[in-house]
Design brief:
Layout (H helix, E strand, L loop, with lengths): L2 E6 L4 E5 L2 E2 L2 E2 L5 E10 L10 E3 L1 H4 E6 L11 E7 L8 E11 L4 E3 L3 E6 L5
Parallel strand pairs: 1-11
Antiparallel strand pairs: 2-8, 3-4, 5-6, 5-9, 7-8, 9-10, 9-11
């Protein structure tokens, strides 16, 4: 499933996803590590360095609904708040998440595509 979003430059936003492991919603105990990196879509250059996330900060042990989730009624268990300082210039980007599950299996989630619009000033 492709996840897309739209934000303004210099604006924070939140990524909500449902992450599964072994056919069920992943819980914190399933995940050893999470990293993310952002790439410009029209370039092979990385926009950011690979950055680790704290599992307990982004993985929920129960599925959540609301909070901006409108994909289905099942809910999400992954929430990453992306800082406003991440996108200071307009453009198209992809956020790539790498999860290392217990037992050392590594999974790359489908990239989250973000279009950052310029703020119009008068």
């Amino acid at each position: 499933m492709t996840v897309t979003g739209l934000t303004k430059e210099d604006s924070a936003f939140t990524v909500l996803l449902r992450v599964e492991h072994d056919g069920a919603a992943a819980v914190q105990a399933d995940v050893d590590a999470i990293e993310y990196q952002i790439f410009e879509t029209d370039s092979t250059s990385a926009h950011t360095e690979a950055t680790s996330l704290t599992v307990a900060d982004v993985i929920y042990d129960t599925l959540q609904t609301g909070g901006g989730w409108n994909t289905d009624t099942t809910g999400w268990n992954f929430r990453h708040n992306v800082a406003a300082t991440t996108f200071l210039t307009p453009g198209a980007y992809e956020v790539e998440y790498k999860l290392t599950f217990s037992g050392s299996s590594v999974v790359y989630l489908d990239p989250v595509r973000i279009v950052v619009q310029a703020i119009k000033s008068t």
